[in-house]
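Question (not urgent): is this output format expected?
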Amino acid sequence: MVAVKYVQHDGFECDVDIPAGNTVMQGAVSNMIEGIVAECGGAGACATCHCYVGEEWLEKVADANEIEKETLEMVGCVRSGSRLSCQIKVTEDMDGLIIYIPESQY
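Got this back:
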């Protein structure tokens, strides 16, 4: 299991354990984390699982592919660390990962 901290826009934090191989989105949905809507179920098509990866974790998280980057263009609040949580596969070396959830999903 990999510890992941989800931080809401208001600062509320929720620590959960996610099996390696699952996505950050699956971890949020399975643990009823508010703010990760995941309307497309992880297909990377809707951007309702938009999140921000903590700056200190960007090197550990694989880069977004071109399709994800195009989908993120739909989001009005893209910034450094913006990702679709359905596209971030959790690995053992991500233990302690911090994910920030935007105030709303576009």
